[in-house]
Amino acid sequence: MRGEVQDAPSHPASGLRGGIVPAKTGALNGSSPNGHSAANGNATNGAAANGASQASAPTTFYGHDREELTRILIQGLGDLGYQGAANALSRESGFEVETSHAAAFRLAVLEGNWTEAEALVQGTGPESDTPTPGLLLAAGASREEMLFLLRQQKYLELVEKRDIGQALMVLRAELQPLRRNERQLHALSSLIMVQSSDDLRSQARWDGAAGESRKDLLSILSRSISPSAMIPEHRLAELVNKVKENEMACCEYHNTTKWPSLYTDHRCSRDDFPLDLQIELKQHKDEVWVIKFSHDGTRLATASKDQTVKIYEMNQFSVVHTLKEHSAPVAFVAWSPDDTKIITCSQDKSAKLWDTKTGICLQTIHWHSEPVTSAAWAPDGKSYVTGSLDQSRPLTIWDAAGYDLRPLHSFECSGCRVQDVTIATMTPPASSIRSAMPYEYDSVLPVRLVVSCTDRSVHIYDYHRREKISHIQLDHEITCLNLSRDGQEMLINLNCGELWALGVDSGEVIQKYKGQKQSQFVIRGCYGGASEGVVVSGGEDSKICLWHRHSAKMIESIDAHSSGCVNSVAWNMAQPRMWASAGDDHTVRIWANPVPDAIRASRDTESVVWGSANAGSSSSHNAPSIPQWSSTGARGQ
């Protein structure tokens, strides 16, 4: 990768704060605290302050609007703490960051002057024929939504002060008449019963009037105000983030947790990408069907047709546990969010919950009358769901801590035979008005349960509400599905030899990845790379294909295993320069760059059985000789 790199910065919504904020006394940005212009006339839409003339300056800068760029620079200088430079640029250019009404609104929100803030919101809108003093709102902005957010903050602060009488008046007389969100109103009303201010802040996911909540609120509200009046908070940082994100998205071999430098164009080298086969793990006695890294990247679980699951410790590639209580092939494994437990699903019609530290079985589920095909954990790790080919009980939720193994919920999906399940928290785009709402109950971070069935359908549920949201019918059989980390996209393997990326909410096909061979067997692909910029899948021809996620270009085709299908691939997201594959040849293969320390240190030890590589990239990337851990030479057995 060319150029310097820095650690990824925090997102503007939670990192940089403030911008140019009017002081309590004196004028700033051409505005006095009461909203009246300190300049010769209001500075609206970037009008020249103090009578400064811009007639001699060109209106564009390398094709960009000069006024827009200058105002963003003024705001950015303030965000960086260079307030004097920001004021100097404002004076010299004649441009101001925001109008007097916007400055007054900023001050009102930050000081908790809710009457003044509401009065400004009630002012001019872009559709008004008779303008009145107030904020110029952005096209499509909802005045009622802004009022709801202001009154919600007012209500929470009253509850925090334990002024319950006034809080109830706000709830009944100000919030309820807006009729914006009945579920939210119900959640807000429940906060009246909290025992302390600390309980309120914890339950509402809100840091209080003395915290950052008012700044967060202003950041959200600024998106509803016309940019000509108030630039959205931290606009320069957001633009820089988008530039970097676009460069990383366009980089075919992007696989670093570092953010690129602004000094040079970004491009990761193929030589740094983990395409080298480093080791074969040969402890299984039959086909290996599925593999999963733990979330912390320190362990790997492998499930096999030989009826066992092995858990490897990745520092030494040693087997720490062999889970062998199933009486038929094991088809699936799922790590708990904290990696302390793992679920195994078997063709013996049972699912088992194990302690990953001791290797002891904690629960055995004998509920389904057909093979259990898959399982997934709730984000909080308190419950999990099992999927089965059992048409009468295809999808069931269980208590992970319960000893009474009665289901928490069994979904009504008559006739479904579940092939795969996955759960993810939906992280809204940064631009969403609700994305920064710390106290938007139930809808800020919805949890989706996505289910694929043998009838070529995908069903999407709200996990907490147990409600079905949507249904997608496809023309091809689905063998595997994965969700992206933000929960916005699903990746599915199809028996037509393609992988598709679909929007979870929209159901629309975002991208198709072609060239992989699959028609008869279950193949499990995945997202890969540090930022999930790669799609990876095995095939029935012993090969592994890698595609650039955003362009769908196949960037590698690897002759990966000695024979049969490559059934499963898994990327180590905690150590993104390592991934693994599993095949019909009874082996699990570890791909990494650079060489893991354990392999480098063991190349002179007797516990490693050396052999010539049977795998290498077909795109002129040959694998080196590799160490092979056999069942007799495995450490930790």
TrEMBL record:
Repeat in keyword set: yes
One Pfam family name from the record?
A: LisH_WDR26
An annotated GO BP: proteasome-mediated ubiquitin-dependent protein catabolic process
Biased region (Low complexity) positions are 34-57, 611-625
The record's listing under SMART domains reads: CTLH, WD40
Biased composition, Polar residues: where in the chain?
627-637
Query: Keyword Repeat: yes or no?
Result: yes
- The residues forming a coiled coil are none
InterPro entries, alphabetized: CTLH_C (IPR006595), WD40/YVTN_repeat-like_dom_sf (IPR015943), WD40_repeat_CS (IPR019775), WD40_repeat_dom_sf (IPR036322), WD40_rpt (IPR001680), WD_repeat-ST_regulator (IPR051350)
Keyword annotations for this protein, in alphabetical order, are: Repeat, WD repeat
- Give the organism, scientific name: Carpinus fangiana
Q: What is this protein called?
A: CTLH domain-containing protein
